[in-house]
Write a structure and sequence with these properties.
It is found in: Cytoplasm. Pathway: Cofactor biosynthesis; coenzyme A biosynthesis; CoA from (R)-pantothenate: step 1/5. Keywords: ATP-binding, Coenzyme A biosynthesis, Cytoplasm, Kinase, Nucleotide-binding, Transferase. It holds the Pfam family PRK. The protein is an alpha/beta fold and 313 residues long. It has one domain: Rossmann fold. Helices cover 39% and strands 18% of the residues. The protein is built from nine helices and nine strands. The strands form two sheets. A seven-stranded mixed beta sheet has the order 1-9-8-7-2-6-3. The chain is globular and about 65 Å long. It starts with 11 loop residues before the first strand and ends with a strand. The structure holds adenosine-5'-diphosphate and the ligand CC(C)(COP(=O)(O)O)[C@@H](O)C(=O)NCCC(=O)O. Ligand PAZ binds next to helix 9.
């Protein structure tokens, strides 16, 4: 475990995989390989060893944070001389397109819900708050999907602040990756969970001056990190895998690419979307938020987490 370079004090604790995995202590593995298979994103090679060595220490740490939040609430209740109602503990999960945020988030939802203290864990992804394609086209920003301006930021902040304030239930829109658009008339209902996980590219973005951002409501945040060249490769590989699977569905927005493009054209298409959209968004908007995360999980080329950085509290 190190705490800085060249003796310079750092606000982070840096841990190697070996140091991190020892922090699992006696946390049990509450997951079968079949269950993990169902949570795994397309082309994400995660296995039970990764869950045991990386995600169980994280699940243990998060459980400790949730408990200490309860302790803090008791302190404030004592100070005010009146009970303070518990509100959901909110966790943000940020990182690039194709870095594996969805697998991390779905896995955490399952692991955290298996602690007896907080059985109800909800997961929302910020794509629910993307403007519909019709609005993006009208504004001339269809090629900026995933950039901060492609989201209804106020609606997202309204939702998270209402959940933090204890709203009994809240309906949010649903985004379909298959249709590449917000689904008209569909909604996801979030009912006062013990823990809410909010996953998305830009969740750690600082709000405009004088306004609140979603990250203002986070009790803990995680940035899933990897080298840009590795994520590019994962994006390209995943696009090839999608071409063989999701794109063959006639409802897929990208259906024509399943048949029309040969291997070379598919590679060129994937490289272009990566370079012109996702890499620019990563470098200019997402990476600069990494330093704001409570915890950074750094993946190597094989997707395995090799370094963990925890912010000092
Ligand atoms: N065009 C697409 N068609 C179907 N599914 C997709 C498409 N693009 C991405 N997905 C799926 O959507 C999920 C979220 O992807 P993404 O936003 O890149 O985040 P991450 O890879 O970090 O989880 C992944 O499970 C991915 O497989
Ligand atoms: C839908 C996304 C913006 C991710 O949204 P998030 O849930 O992270 O807010 C992203 O997966 C995406 O589709 N980006 C557009 C460029 C592309 O097709 O790769």
């Amino acid at each position: 475990m190190t705490s800085g370079w060249d003796g310079v004090p750092s606000p982070y604790v840096e841990l190697s995989r070996d140091a991190w995995r020892a922090l699992r202590e006696n946390t049990p593995l509450p997951l079968t390989s079949g269950e993990l298979e169902a949570l795994r994103g397309l082309r994400d090679p995660i296995d039970l060893t990764e869950v045991e060595e990386v995600y169980l220490p994280l699940s243990r740490l998060l459980n400790l944070f949730v408990q200490s939040d309860g302790g803090l609430r008791d302190t404030v209740s004592g100070f005010l001389g009146e009970p303070v109602q518990p509100t959901p503990f909110i966790i943000g999960v940020a990182g690039s397109v194709a870095v594996g945020k969805s697998t991390t988030s779905r896995l955490l939802r399952t692991l955290l819900a298996r602690w007896p203290e907080h059985p109800s864990v909800e997961l929302v992804t910020t794509d629910s708050f993307l403007y519909p394609n019709a609005v993006l086209s009208e504004r001339g920003i269809m090629d900026r999907k995933g950039f901060p301006e492609s989201y209804d930021r106020r609606a997202l902040v309204r939702f998270v602040s209402s959940i933090k304030a204890g709203a009994a239930e809240y309906d949010i829109p649903v985004y379909s990756h298959l249709e590449y658009d917000v689904v008209p008339g569909a909604s996801q209902t979030v009912r006062r969970p013990d823990i809410l996980i909010v996953e998305g590219l830009n969740v750690l973005q600082a709000p405009p001056a004088g306004q609140l951002g979603v990250s203002d409501f986070f009790d803990f945040s995680i940035y899933v990190d990897a080298r840009v060249e590795d994520i590019r490769q994962w994006y390209v590989d995943r696009l090839f895998a999608l071409r063989r699977t999701a794109f063959t569905d006639p409802r897929s927005y990208f259906h024509k690419y399943a048949h029309e493009l040969d291997e070379d054209e598919t590679a060129a298409f994937a490289q272009r979307i990566w370079r012109d959209v996702n890499e620019i968004n990563l470098v200019s908007n997402i990476l600069p938020t990494r330093a704001r995360a409570t915890l950074v999980l750094h993946k190597d080329r094989d997707h395995a987490v090799q370094r963990v950085r925890l912010r000092r509290i």
